[in-house]
Recover the amino acids of this structure.
C-alpha cells in the first residue's frame, strides 16, 4: 500500500479540481503556494508515481510537454492550436474502436487516446 503524503494529496486535489491538463511546471507553481519548500523534482516523482499506479493519466501533445489528467476513464480531448489549451470533450467514446484497431495490428490493443485539434472559442473571439 502506498504511504500517504500531504504533497501527493495536494497534487491529487489540484488535478481533481482543475479543468486544465497541467504540465509538471504548472502543478509545481500551484503546489508551491501551499508547500513553499517543495522541489520540482518532488512534483515530477509524485506525478510519475501517480501515473504509473493509474491514479492519473499522463499524455503528450504537440507542445512536447507531458500533461496530467485526473480523469482516468476513457474520454477525448480538444487541443487549441492557438493557445494550446487542452479540454475534455463531453462526448461518448467509440467503444468499438479498440476492436477495429485490433483487426489492423499484430498485437492486442488495450486502450486508445484521441486528440481533436482546432481553435477554441476564446481564440476565435479574439480574431
Amino acid at each position: 500500500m502506498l504511504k500517504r503524503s500531504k504533497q501527493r494529496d495536494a497534487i491529487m486535489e489540484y488535478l481533481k479540481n482543475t479543468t486544465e491538463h497541467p504540465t509538471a511546471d504548472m502543478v509545481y507553481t500551484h503546489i508551491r503556494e501551499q508547500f513553499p519548500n517543495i522541489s520540482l523534482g518532488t512534483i515530477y516523482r509524485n506525478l510519475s508515481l501517480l501515473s504509473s499506479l493509474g491514479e492519473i493519466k499522463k499524455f503528450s501533445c504537440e507542445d512536447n510537454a507531458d500533461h496530467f489528467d485526473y480523469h482516468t476513464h476513457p474520454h477525448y480531448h480538444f487541443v487549441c492550436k492557438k493557445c494550446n489549451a487542452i479540454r475534455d470533450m463531453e462526448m461518448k467514446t467509440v467503444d468499438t474502436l479498440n476492436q477495429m484497431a485490433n483487426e489492423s495490428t499484430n498485437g492486442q490493443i488495450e486502450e486508445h487516446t484521441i486528440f481533436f485539434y482546432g481553435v477554441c472559442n476564446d481564440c476565435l473571439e479574439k480574431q
Remarks:
- Strands lie at 57-60, 66-69, 76-80, 86-89, 115-118.
